[in-house]
Amino acid sequence: MANDNMVVVAAVARKGGCGKSTLVKALASAALGAGKSVLLIDTDPQGDLGGWFERATEQGMVPAGASFARARDTEELDARINEAYDGDATDFIFIDTAGTAGAWADQIAMLADYLITPVLATSSDLVVGTQTAQWFQRLQERASRPEDLPPHRVVLTRFPSKATKLEVALAKRAHGLFPVINTIVQDRAAYKEMDERGFLGEIAQSYQSQPSPLERNRARHFQEALVEAMGVLNNIMER
């Protein structure tokens, strides 16, 4: 039986290096931590997400509910989504995309339930975020049924715990420019280790099993990151 409750989330932005892959990994970790099954799909030719999943598999940092696929074009992406839908074994699909616009991005938008764009609190990133928001606005204007397009959410990422006045001002400016969700993704060492090793929950468990109290205490940082990522996922899905 097909899974009508399956949710497809695509990370989109007009350039690379803004944290799409890291955000996808964190959101997938959050969904898995909530007991959901997840399919990660890498459509970026650079293959960051695929390389990460391979490293995580080699290190034993992939939970049973996680799977991975690549898609070279939107036809293959559509097929992967339909397979997961018909198989009724996937709760969430998270798609990492290349930092491009045009027809490729338009078609991905048609396949997703939610679009997310990570934005850093820098002037250059606000420019790129604006370009991405303008692309989505133009897509809405071209669509025969704009109400069928997915909602677009912006996530402030890598925000320092001790932000400067400029960073705070840029964050406030972002809220005036984009549909920014309430939860901010902080600049955490846990996300950097996630990028190197695998899913947040698996890393937390690996520290919890250590004999040293100091090592076990490190699990807390990954649990905090999981809570934060779950807040982001919940905010994204709010209507």
UniProtKB/TrEMBL annotation:
Pfam families the UniProt entry points to: VirC1
SUPFAM superfamilies: P-loop containing nucleoside triphosphate hydrolases
Residues annotated as domain AAA+ ATPase: 5-160
CDD domains, alphabetized: ParAB_family
Domain of life where this protein originates: Bacteria
InterPro entries in alphabetical order: AAA+_ATPase (IPR003593), DNA_Partitioning_ATPase (IPR050678), P-loop_NTPase (IPR027417), VirC1 (IPR009744)
PANTHER family per the UniProt record, alphabetical: COBQ_COBB_MIND_PARA NUCLEOTIDE BINDING DOMAIN-CONTAINING PROTEIN, P-LOOP CONTAINING NUCLEOSIDE TRIPHOSPHATE HYDROLASE
UniProt-recorded name of the protein: ParA family protein
Higher taxonomy: Bacteria, Pseudomonadati, Pseudomonadota, Alphaproteobacteria, Rhodobacterales
